[in-house]
Design a protein that fits this description.
Number of domains: 1
Distance between the termini: 44 Å
Number of strands: 15
Strand content: 25-35%
Helix content: 25-40%
Radius of gyration: 19 Å
CATH architecture: Alpha-Beta Complex
Number of helices: 7
CATH class: Alpha Beta
CATH superfamily: Spore Coat Polysaccharide Biosynthesis Protein SpsA, Chain A
């Protein structure tokens, strides 16, 4: 399977900034995040090696069945990727000219459209979301084949944080009822889907918060999306341009599901920050 991964990446230090992408204090963290995101793709879906204990040697493996091209979408030179790193890990940098870098997600969609016939799967990601699952894309394709092209599976975003109420925090909790209903009103569909992949009962729920900063669509799904009147309409009415670029166009086109409840770990992606899980909020026991 040929996969195009587009990553919206931006960094430009500003005085007294509270945002990670513009805070000089966060430069090293942001550099580490984007590099770890890219290395995770190359590690999970690239060539591996096996340590042969008997001969005290490494034996190269045959690699993944998937071929992945990575494009970092940025504006001008406002990024943290060095030419050496990009050569080593096979990263192309698309340097665009945008006044508002929070619109980079729409530019990533445009790049997908320009290569719509060349890949089997098209991925958009924010620059601090790391895959830790070698079956990640297989699960997305399985969901598409099982439930049809009008439905898409988004990952649950998690943060690992020893200072949070629990070690692992899911950071995409439900929106308000009104906001969730508004997002799901674009495409009507069933609320809950059930399956047993690998013999394990799994529940998928129509996402009450579809945002994940991440999505993946097949070639046929991208073609369908591109034929809609809202393709690249740059509608920013969902939270902000950042969230809208990552989520709103998909919500207008497909039914978005996430693995739910005890099944939430079926498809998850790690947010390489602990800003959300560090928020000081009360812990409310479940009903």
């Amino acid at each position: 399977m040929r996969i195009l991964v587009t990553i919206a990446h931006y960094f430009s230090a500003e005085a007294n900034s509270q945002h990670s992408s513009t805070s000089e204090r966060k430069r090293d963290d942001r550099l580490r995040a984007i590099e770890e995101v890219i290395c995770a793709y190359r590690g999970q879906f690239g060539t591996s090696a096996t340590l042969q204990v008997g001969t005290k040697s490494f034996q190269p493996g045959v690699g993944s069945d998937d071929e992945i091209d990575i494009v970092a979408v940025t504006t001008g030179e406002k990024h943290l990727l060095t030419p050496d790193f990009c050569r080593r890990y096979g990263v192309k940098v698309a340097k665009l000219d945008l006044e508002n870098p929070r619109m980079l997600g729409f530019s990533a969609q445009q790049i997908m459209g320009q290569h719509a016939s060349k890949y089997d799967l098209f991925v958009f990601s924010e620059d601090d979301l790391r895959i830790n699952d070698p079956t990640f894309f297989s699960k997305i394709v399985w969901f598409n084949q099982t439930y049809g092209p009008q439905r898409v599976l988004f990952p649950n975003r998690i943060e690992w944080n020893r200072n949070a109420p629990t070690l692992k925090t899911y950071i995409d909790g439900d929106l308000s009822v009104q906001a969730a209903d508004r997002m799901n009103a674009y495409v009507q569909d069933e609320n809950t889907l059930y399956a047993a992949p690998l013999g394990r009962q799994t529940v998928f729920r129509r996402a009450r918060n579809p945002h994940a900063g991440y999505f993946a669509v097949t070639r046929d799904q991208l073609d369908h999306w591109m034929r809609q009147p809202h393709w690249l309409d740059r509608d920013v009415s969902f939270v902000s341009p950042l969230e809208s670029a990552a989520t709103l166009g998909m919500a207008k086109t497909f039914s978005i599901y996430k693995a739910f409840g005890r099944s939430a770990g079926f498809l998850e992606i790690e947010h390489l920050d602990n800003g959300f899980s560090n928020l000081k909020m009360p812990v409310i026991p479940p009903l």
